[in-house]
Amino acid sequence: MIGKICGTGSYVPVEYMDNHELSRTVETSDEWIRERTGIVKRHIAKEDTTVSMAVKAAKQALTDSELCEEEIDLLIVSTISSNVILPCTACEVQKEIHAINATCFDLNAACTGFLFAYNTAQAYIAAGMCKNVLLIGAECLSTLIDWKDRTTCILFGDGAGAVVLRAEKGNLYRTVSCSDGRKGTALTCDTGDYIKMNGQEVFKFAVRQVPEAIAGVLKENNLKEEDIAHFILHQANRRIVEAVARRMNVELDKFPMNLQEYGNTSSASIPLLLDEMNRQGKLKRGQKLILAGFGAGLSWGASVLEW
Predict the structure, then answer these.
(1) Residue 274 contacts by C-beta under 8 Å, 6 or more apart in sequence?
(2) Could you write out the three-class secondary structure of 212-267?
């Protein structure tokens, strides 16, 4: 059995901060940020929390899936920025949406988190442990940012994305997933502190490891680049996405981006993009996609998804 996506949803706060507004608090400019990151604005939670955003994305995904809440038997939330520790975010979402039959837990793998959550759900389905899974990536990164630190405050935003997986007959694709804790100092956030990042190190890591992970997952599944309709990368930085496309010698059109609107939303970025593409009619049944995540840990990986 394999989990097929049968519903998507997303939510971002109404409030946002564009580059011009940001330039009033730190030494930067719209041109400087656009050139180096591709980001134009980022949404900021003021009334919302990680839990409330996750709930709103989940409800959309359930509506799209045409499943009812009681049919969900596994609920995973990927987040590094929850407003709650106990109970976990997933249990708080379960309570709000009345998914009374779901087993719930959170997963913390930062910007690779949604990919690892997706792989975990597939393993549960393949093992016959569940049939319908609600996966959510939700982040309120604005609470972890030093808004006077130009190296980080220009990058991150808040939001949530969700997908529903339903068990269907099919072969499970092999995945590539990796971590290297020895290099974790490139991107850190200690308890009670702010996110700190060595941007150059993270950039070099991403443009080296992501193409290798994608090449590896293609090889593992006897696929070629031309078999893939879209490469859905974690939305960290336009330059990273462009560099990955160049290294793979694949046209940039196959690498959709929405980071200009949302910035880097960590665990939420991949499901946010999937929902946007789904609602725009850009995803067709039978298409093969590659999901690729990379970030703190350091962790990275790639998976094949058949829409």
Answers:
(1) 5, 8, 161, 163, 232, 283
(2) HHHHHHHHHCCCCHHHCCEEEECCCCHHHHHHHHHHHCCCHHHCCCCHHHHCECHH
* 267 contacts 296 by C-beta, under 8 angstroms: no
Supply the residues annotated as catalytic: 111, 234, 264
Phi, psi of 282 (to 5 degrees): -90, -10
SS3 assignment for 178-206: EECHHHHHHEECCCCCCCEECHHHHHHHH
Q: pTM of whole model > 0.90? A: yes
Q: Average pLDDT across each block of 10 residues of the chain; the chain has 307 residues. List them in order.
A: 98 98 96 98 98 98 98 98 98 98 98 98 98 98 97 98 97 96 98 97 98 98 98 98 98 98 98 98 97 98 97
Q: With residue 35 as reference, give the H or E element that holds it.
A: helix 30-37
Beta bridge partners of 300: 178, 294
Burial of 71 (0-12, 13-18, 19+ CB in 10 A): middle
Report the DSSP pairing between strands 299-306 and 288-295. antiparallel
Q: What CA–CA distance (Å, rounded) separates 159 from 110? A: 14
First and final CA of the chain: distance in angstroms? 15
